[in-house]
Amino acid sequence: MNYNGIIDKYRDYLPVTKKTPIVTLLEGNTPLIPSQNLSSMLGKGFEVFLKYEGLNPTGSFKDRGMTMAVSKAIEEGTEAVMCASTGNTSASAAAFAARSGIRCIVLIPKGAIALGKLAQALIHGAQVIAIDGNFDDALDLVKQITDQHPITLVNSLNPFRIEGQKTASFEICDMLDDAPDFQCMPVGNAGNITAYWKGYKEYKQKGRSTRLPMMCGFQAAGSAPIVHGRPIKNPETIATAIRIGNPASWQQAVAARDESGGLIDMVTDEEILKAYQILAAKEGVFVEPASAASVAGLIKLHEQGYFTENRKLNTANRNIQIVCILTGHGLKDPDRAIRCVREPITVEAKLETVMEAIGL
Ligand SMILES: *Cc1c(COP(=O)(O)O)cnc(C)c1O
């Protein structure tokens, strides 16, 4: 059967009707890649999977939410969408707006968005305004503007974003034939952890899965408001997609953590970059730094004995399954990749010199 995007696939679980005009780029249906290395790191009885959301049409999971948010906005007759963005929301909003022929306005924090994402928003024709402030300032402004004008806000405060994004948990359950035992993921504005948890609960309620995963969310150490229990005024991290000091879905993230018996912890930029390089060099999976927070978190929890301790509570005679959500593609932020490695050397175009340089 043809794949026609997440709304078509999971229509029964989404607030759409026959009249909803579907704007899709065939988002979703991303691979769940078994990780040999991380599975053996955890040891016998554990299986680790990577949900590679970077393979969505604009390179991040935001497309799942945006197909819903833009489709519903068009149904309601809106002429423009607007968002604050650390990059990927604007890239996605710009693409779906372009496809449906409506205007897209984006506020970004000046200098704090990865080059690939900025290029996407611009090439799709969005009106991009950089503000002298951070993401939280941008979101405040967007809320004020969309409150007063007939422009649809497409940040994850838009409930249709959450609805669309929850389909990723459906896909995981469909692929594993049940929910995993644990899920590790980055937390920024906290819409995505909210969406996954909602999706897992709905699937179980509908009898499509028998269990619920423990939700393990990870913030960057310099932007960890939920971990510290207070907003962070000047959030800092190289993982720009989660550089957020006052998450919009804070309460929902805490609820996901507590209801699932999981946790929200933080990982340092160093740990993030280490996981980023492990994913690229050992798994062949290139992600942007924020996405590596999930694997940095997995490694941190493993070193603390978290999974084995929780495993003991589980009497079932089967492998414990852990899914790490890789939220965005590595090509979004090529500058970061180049800075992590040695740049290529240049030699004369001669056989001997090239052979010498290769070490042959
Ligand atoms: C948006 C984004 C996040 C954070 O998701 P939230 O829903 O804001 O918590 C993480 N990684 C990437 C690549 C993103 O684009």
Notes on the protein architecture:
It is a single chain. This protein is α/β, with parallel strands linked by helices and 360 residues long. Strand 7, helix 9 and strand 8 form a beta-alpha-beta unit. The termini are far apart. The mean pLDDT is 96. The structure holds pyridoxal-5'-phosphate. The site of pyridoxal-5'-phosphate has 18 residues, from helix 9 and helix 13.
SSE map:
Elements: H1 6-9, E1 32-34, H2 36-42, E2 46-52, H3 62-75, E3 80-84, H4 88-100, E4 103-109, H5 115-123, E5 127-131, H6 135-148, E6 152-153, H7 159-165, H8 167-176, E7 182-186, H9 191-205, E8 214-220, H10 225-228, H11 250-260, E9 263-267, H12 269-283, H13 289-303, H14 306-312, E10 320-326, H15 334-340, H16 351-358
Parallel strand pairs: 2-10, 3-4, 3-6, 4-5, 7-8, 7-10, 8-9
Antiparallel strand pairs: 1-2
Helix pairs in contact: 3-4, 3-7, 4-5, 7-9, 8-9, 9-11, 12-13
The site of pyridoxal-5'-phosphate (PLP) has 18 residues, from helix 9 and helix 13.
Total helical elements: 16
How confident is the prediction overall: mean pLDDT?
96
List low-confidence stretches.
Answer: none
Distance between the termini: 50 Å
In short:
The chain has 16 helices and ten strands.
Keywords:
44% helix, six-stranded mixed sheet, 16 helices, binds pyridoxal-5'-phosphate
